[in-house]
Amino acid sequence: MRPRPLILAAVAATSIALVPPPAGAARSTNVVEYSCTAEGVAQPQSIKVTVELTMPTDAQVGQQLTIEWLGTYAEGTALTAPPAGLPAGTKAYAYVGISGYQGLTSATGVGPESTAAIEAGETVPLPQGVVELKTTANSAGSGSVLPGALNFGTTPTEPLVECEVANRDALTPDTLTVPGTGGSTSPSATPSATTTTGTPTPSATSPRPTRTVTETATAPVPGDDGGVDRTPTGGAATGAGGEAGPDARLVVLAGLLVTFAAGAGLLLRRRSVGRTRA
After folding, report:
1. What residue range is the signal peptide (predicted)?
2. Does the pLDDT at position 22 exceed 50?
């Protein structure tokens, strides 16, 4: 081979090495030591995973952002399935912790599910490729990002294997930055009080005025029953006076005539006796 082509190849390789990666492609790398526990297993497993994180360059306030997570087993370690195994459909749930950022503490993502059950003692595979961890910042700011837990199961709320970070203090944090003015986009949940002036509205519970109705009893006119039965309930008719019937009135009138005639007779007799003596 000629020397000239060798020189050109060396220059090309050096040029590629000096070209910086495109924005957003740079990754921070940490070797994370995990302590993994499973239900029914007394002794936890210790594994190491090389975790690469990529921070977003287009984060915006109030919009979902993505942190890329890529994990591979390090130094010949690997997680093995517990004695009960893991069912088909098991997925890896990756987390990162965010500190120093008000209102934003974590992001989470899920890898593809396994197509077959993982038998006891078999290696639990990590997701092949990037896992997208999602979260939303409701205000501008910045915070430190570190790899978090790594769980395995069919749902995120009921993990079958839980792996917690054991060397958090030895990890190098990344920085997540969300540009903006710093104001929150969330509306206030407490409405402000408003004072209204003017004529007060009468209360619906105000007492209503009471109207007093006075009834005047009218005495019945003698001799006019008005069609009202005067017989007490359950008793006999009382009769007499203006309350008497037509037959009784004739008897009373006859008695009065007899009395008047008798009085007139006595008066005529006294006058005739007086004249005789004179």
Report:
1. 1-25
2. no
